[in-house]
Amino acid sequence: MRINFGLLDLRVFLALFDCGHFHKAAELLNLSQPSLSRRLLTMEARLGTPLFERSTRSVVPTSAGRQLEPMVRRLLDELDSSFLSISGLGEDRRGHVTISSIPTAVIYFIPRVFKQFAQQYPLIRLRVLDRAPQEALECVMRGEAEFGINMIGSTETDVMFTPVMDDPYVLVCHRTHSLAKKRNLTWRSLADHPLIRVGRENRGNRALLDGALSKADVRLDWLFEVNNLTTSLGLVEAGLGATVLPRLAAPHGPHPVIVTKPIRSPEVTRTIGIIERRNGRLSPAAKLFRDLLLSETENV
After folding, report:
1. Per-residue model confidence (pLDDT) at position 91
2. pTM of the model as a whole
3. ω into residue 284 within 30 of 0, thus cis?
4. Which residue segments constitute the domains of the chain, with CATH numbers given?
5. Residue 153 three-state SS
């Protein structure tokens, strides 16, 4: 079954979603309120489900409306970018890119790519949905993100995972820590030192690391446990202990306080890649960002 909507129908939906009020949405689109209401009713009839719950004061999206919103927004952004390119105004490189990413790539890696991209394409808006691995994957599957940076693939046939780099686990410690000057670190050499463990926000990495250490018969002393990566780095800067993180999540380049050390025997790594919908089509802006991202991974 094919359901046909006009561009104005989709803009009516987004205006109502953003404004939360029929009168304000009608003013935004320069439509009469009855005309706007008729278009919404037609959309809902064709979809067979309500998109908003109405009250005398406002409209609130239903679960179907919330599910539809990211797909409609991305479609309209892609069309706007394409029309600008066709009309000759594409030299300005306007557009909007939404990606999902695991938190460990957001702290240091993604900001570097964002900075370069913003310098080259200052009129393209960037948005990152930082989520746990499974949630970041689902953002791509639902169409909320055009593509994702992740450490896992999917058994779903409509999603593909393209590996782009190996990301080893490293020790992150204060420069005064006794392990900071060691040349060759092994996992066993960490056993007698208090360590900071990242819990909920890092559970994908935690499972991978626990499995590798169990095979190597190594037990570590996790003295502190925190919920997010930035907290663990704050405790390291305060000299309260060391932590084990993927290299992407560790500071890059010289740092006044923190030292990053590779760990051998065994080397534990995870594979980082790009998650995309198999039959999806990236917007022109997203393609530009994806290309820059891939070139940057070669320098990590």
Report:
1. 47
2. 0.66
3. no
4. 7-66 (1.10.10.10), 69-164+272-297 (3.40.190.10), 166-270 (3.40.190.290)
5. coil
